[in-house]
Amino acid sequence: MTTTNLTIASFFCPTTVHIGAGAARNLTNILEKFHATRVFIFVDDALKTAPFMRNVENDLKKASIKTSTFTGIEPDPSATTVESAYHLAQAFSPHVLLAVGGGSTIDVAKAVGILLTNGGKIHDYEGIEQFNIPALPLVAVPTTAGTGSEVSGSCVITDDKQNRKMSIRHASLNPARHAILDPEALTTLPAHVAAHAGMDAFVHALESYTSKQANLMTDALNMQALALLSHNLRDFVADRSNRQAGLNMLVGSALTGMAFGQTGLGNVHCMARFIGAKLHLSHGLSNALCLPVVAQFNQSAATKKYAEVARIMQVASRNDTDDVAAQLAVKAITTLCRDVDIPGSLREVGADRESFPGMAADCAQAGYNRWNPRQTTEADFIKLFEAAF
Fold first, then answer.
1. Average pLDDT, the chain
2. What span, in angstroms and rounded, lies between the C-alpha atoms of 76 and 18?
3. Domain chopping of the chain, boundaries
4. How far apart are CA 264 and CA 312, in angstroms?
5. CATH number of 192-388: 2.40.160.20, 3.40.50.300, 3.90.770.10, 1.20.1090.10?
6. Between the N and C ends of the chain, which has fewer C-beta atoms within 10 Å?
7. How confident is the model over 114-169, as pLDDT tens digits?
8. Per CATH, which fold does 16-186 belong to?
């Protein structure tokens, strides 16, 4: 069951997705589609010497594909990093870009792909559809199950001179051409990174599903994503070598990645933007810290959808009223956070109350009321930060 508004909507996803354990061994066949003999690789530092990456490099070598590799990509990647990678890639003249890593690595690859065909600086393309020449083709192999960057139409780059995040969005020209969802790429992921990334994906699905801009297509994707993520996150965090749990997490992350760029997100992401910047926390952890209080705040404005979330998470039945089921969803969401060792309060990660008014003012100006199901004032945000503290 799903409920959504009847506004005319559209849905689009240009990425071809390859799914399954060992899917990355099909990489050279994918590159053949582009007649690629020169590939510029972006890879997470933690994977440089991992067996998975060695297999990728060996497969490329056997196919006589020349490569150049860029590493050293930081969390919340900077425009300076993008510029450095761009100059190296430009000198190499690749036919295709390959990103093997988490959301930061894939976002840098997207940004470089834009610059290689459009020129200029990445700042020139901040906003929605600020470029119209297709980026250089990108093949993405996510090594975390969280951001959905491989299929989303956005990349986020930090302007390190002004200390602000820039979102570069283009639904048709910014996603990877091909995404390879291979659980073999997840096996070396530390447990806490798996938990934070997985909670990020869960928040994407929940906020996209309950967004004011949701439609029947995005609902279908997000309902399946919520099921895959909530039923597999605990098992995956406990054992990253669990291939089935890993694959389910990757698919859940990608499904909601296809949706949230078209529905927008809500108060969790709004608050997490400023929490993460203030406390220098990962995006996934920042989201997870804000999730329980925002879920409690929003459920009264999206009761039917929260009730459906409870049934998807298997903590409520059709015999429960929507009001009861919606409250059970909030409890289940809070329990999920605790079960994967998310700290129980902002206090535990070093937050201070003095920063709340300023962050609340920033949240109120950020414009998330376009998507969040419940209208939220600056005073409401102060209360939410206090509740999370």
1. 94
2. 27
3. 16-186, 192-388
4. 22
5. 1.20.1090.10
6. N
7. 999 999 999 999 998 999 999 999 999 999 999 999 999 989 898 888 877 888 98
8. Rossmann fold (3.40.50)
What are the angstrom distances between the C-alpha of 102 and each of 62, 217, 269? 26, 26, 18
Residue 159 Rama label (left phi>0; alpha psi -120 to 50; beta): beta
Categorize the per-residue pLDDT at 229 as very low, low, confident or very high, splitting at 50, 70 and 90.
Answer: very high
Report how far residue 349's alpha carbon sits from residue 359's, in angstroms, rounded to the nearest whole number. 16
Distance CA 292, CA 284 (A): 14
Confidence of residue 172 (pLDDT cuts 50, 70, 90): confident
Calculate mean pLDDT across residues 343-365.
95
> How many angstroms separate the CA atoms of 36 and 51, rounded?
24
Q: What is the spatial distance between Cα 194 and Cα 370, in angstroms, rounded to a whole number?
A: 30
CA distance 43 to 186: 14
* Banded model confidence at residue 245, pLDDT cuts 50, 70, 90: very high
For 41-86, write each residue's pLDDT tens digit. Answer: 999 988 888 999 999 999 999 999 999 999 999 988 999 999 999 9
Distances (CA, A) of 380 to 119, 275, 350: 43, 16, 22
d(CA 285, CA 342): 7
What CA–CA distance (Å, rounded) separates 58 from 61? 5
CB 174 within 8 A of CB 113: no
pLDDT on residue 1: 53
Asked whether the predicted pLDDT for residue 9 surpasses 80, the reply is no
